[in-house]
Structures are given as C-alpha cells and as structure tokens.
C-alpha cells in the first residue's frame, strides 16, 4: 500500500465528495488550488504524489484547449477509497 501525502489525499477526497468520477471533469488548476495553504515543502510533495496518481491511472486526464481537466477513474474507485481512509 502506497502512503500519499495529506495534500494529495485532500485533493482525492474533494474529488470524491464532488463525485468527479468518469466523464465529470474539472480543470486541474482548480484542484491544485485546494492545497495552496500548505507549506512549500508539503506542497511540493503533494504535487509529486498527484503526478504519481495520474501516472498510475487513479486520476484520468482529458485535454481541453484551455487547460488539462481531471477526474477519478471509475474502475479504480476501491483503491482510491482505501488511499483516502
């Protein structure tokens, strides 16, 4: 089991609470604003963990002309719930 930073867990939890699953997406810049209150080191770790979540397929991306949009992978929801708990 991977241990994610509190900032990355906060982003995943907020996406779950907003039900951003499947085709319902949100601009990535808005998601990253949710952890702007963290210290510089914590913020850097949260961004690194966020990129890991995207690379592993927990968070899917969709290219838009304005910015990259993100949403949770519906096939990986059990894993996401385990990480958030």
Instruction: Give the helix proportion (percent range).
Output: 40-55%
Continuous helix count: 4
Succession of helices and strands: HEHHEEH
**Kindly, what is the distance between the CA atoms of the first and last residues, rounded to a whole number of angstroms?**
12 Å
How many strand segments? Answer: 3
**Can you tell me the residue ranges where pLDDT is under 50 for at least 5 consecutive residues?**
none
Instruction: Indicate the proportion of strand residues.
Output: 5-15%
Order of strands, widest sheet: 1-3-2
Shape: globular
Quaternary state reads: single chain
Largest sheet: 3 strands, antiparallel
Overall pLDDT, averaged? 93
* Helix/strand structural class: alpha+beta
Computed CA radius of gyration, to the nearest angstrom: 12 Å
Task: Write up this protein.
With 85 residues, the chain is of the alpha+beta class. It is 51% helix and 14% strand. The protein is built from four helices and three strands; from the N terminus they run αβααββα. It has helices at residues 6-17, 28-33, 40-56, 77-84; strands at residues 26-27, 59-63, 68-72. It has a three-stranded antiparallel β-sheet with strand order 1-3-2. A hairpin with a 4-residue loop joins β2 and β3. α1 packs across α3 (40-56). The mean pLDDT is 93.
């Amino acid at each position: 089991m991977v241990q994610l930073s509190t900032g990355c867990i906060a982003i995943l939890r907020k996406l779950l609470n907003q039900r951003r699953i499947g085709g319902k997406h949100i601009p990535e810049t808005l998601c990253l604003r949710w952890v702007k209150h963290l210290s510089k080191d914590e913020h850097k770790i949260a961004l690194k963990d966020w990129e890991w979540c995207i690379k592993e397929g927990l968070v899917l991306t969709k290219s838009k002309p304005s910015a990259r949009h993100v949403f949770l992978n519906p096939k990986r929801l059990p894993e996401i719930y385990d990480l958030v708990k």
